[in-house]
Amino acid sequence: MTDFQIAWVSPAEPREPVNYVRTGPDTAMPIRFRASIALAVPDAAVTIEVFTGADMRPRINELVIRSSVQKPITTSVLRQVLVDQLLRAAVKEAEVPVDSLSAGTVLGTQPVPATGKADEDASIAARIYREAVASGNPAPAMAVASSMGRSRAQVARYIRKARQMGLLPEL
């Protein structure tokens, strides 16, 4: 088993263009930001740049690992650095309250007029899905099912409808 422990994560440094994407009902994160992370195990420091693309999934597009002269970076050290955990920790630290942001900087929050119950449910499912994806949830459809109290089959129909409505990107 690999030992891995994060000591601390610095506040996120938003990068241009400074826009945000929702990660929860009341929270958002910058679509592009840099975070510095100190690791307790292995003894190293990491800087990552995170970018959230059109599919609403945050991804690391730059990763820098620094170590001390006494403990150089080796293949063994690299294997200990768990990139997915770094990303989740950085996203959590980058979250800010939506009400603290300027109007128009939070993407994908414009209301879409619902023409019926199916459209309304698809809109709700799309919002929950986007928030789950942005927060790093590996099973966003399950988050929708859990949140809405619906079956996976029904949620699949909502998500398909949301894609047809342009609320979610096509696969």
Automatic annotation (TrEMBL):
<protein>
    <submittedName>
        <fullName>Uncharacterized protein</fullName>
    </submittedName>
</protein>
